[in-house]
Write a structure and sequence with these properties.
Blueprint lengths: L1 H21 L5 H7 L4 H37 L1
Length: 76
């Protein structure tokens, strides 16, 4: 059983590595905006991407915090 688990982990890791190598493209809209050479526009696109990326992490963090508090209070 342990050999199967190790093989599964190795195949999963390699497949994720290969998928990430081939998926390094941008969306067509972002690429068109950035290719114009306008530096302030490119910085704005990067700021917008960062802004949109933060919220899922905040929501997952809050969810995990409330689960932790609930479990801590349930033990007492």
């Amino acid at each position: 059983m342990d050999k199967f688990r190790a093989l599964y982990k190795a195949v999963s890791f390699l497949s994720l590595l290969l998928i990430s190598i081939s998926s390094s493209a941008q969306c067509a809209m972002c690429k068109a905006v950035v290719e114009n050479g306008d530096v302030s526009m490119a910085e704005s696109v990067n700021s917008g991407i960062t802004y949109l990326m933060v919220f899922p992490y905040v929501l997952v963090g809050l969810l995990l915090y409330f689960i932790y508090r609930y479990r801590k209070n349930a033990k007492n």
